[in-house]
Amino acid sequence: MSNRVQPKLIIHGGAGSSLKGKGGVDAVRQSLYQIVREVYALLLTGAVAKEAVVKGCQLLEDAPRFNAGTGSVLQSDGQIRMSASLMDGVAQRFSGVINASRLKNPIDLALFLQNSPDRVLSDQGAAYLLRELAIPTYDPLTDIRLQEWIQEREGNFSKEMAGVVAEKELVEAGEPGRGTIGVVALDSQGHLAVGTSTGGKGFERIGRVSDSAMPAGNYATPQAGISCTGIGEDIIDECLAARIVVRVTDGLSLYQALERSFAEAIRNQRDFGAIGLDCTGAIGWGKTSEVLLAAYHNGTEIGDTLELANGMVVGGC
After folding, report:
1. pTM of the prediction?
2. N or C end of the chain, less CB within 10 A?
3. Other beta carbons less than 10 A from residue 314's beta carbon
């Protein structure tokens, strides 16, 4: 008798202010769906969850529309520093890099560190590892992110963060978005993994650490996996990913764990989103931000969260 299960997948490209009109929604949807299709096809070949998560993060990091890898935002000194982490739910093993520079895919370093006795490295350590692995240096800067930084420098960095997607014409005027990418996968063996990657919030103080390289923003056990996006400090204050996963591990359904955690977040006036899966194949998400840029494959079809109502929303399938 086979123990194989139907793979499931959910990804996100950030959270924040509303996308401008149907054109903005369609453009982001097309990008997300293309990646969902490619990663889900990999899962159908029998790939393990960790392999699928790394592939999904690489594709999202390579998409200049999103704030991770190529297209990452610039910090206050005009430099790009990226953070990423990976967690294997089967082994319950977390690894990551903080404020890494001059590489194409920070998730690759997180993958290598899965089998290292030192599993989280900061900027200098990540640079040494990059050289040790002979990974070619890479400049993730895009022209639109440079222009964004120049414009903010003229205003003495009055904004607290950069846009969630690079194309300003796709975002309504007002509050910027919170740019992070994330992938949660359930493979055919019923194993979970999760990865999260970011260029940071943009224009921040040098040395600021993102939640994306912490269990607060990226966490998995054999029972559930969660990737977060939004204001990193809010995610850290709630220890959001770990809080939701622990609640599932303690017996709540994924939906119940999300609902309880996001009700608490509303009381604490937090601004963020989260996506997740559990070992039964349930897919879930929640947001307090205006928009959550997430898409999923439930084994039958692809769906997304791009046009959810404003305000707190918790859902799933």
Report:
1. 0.94
2. N
3. 21
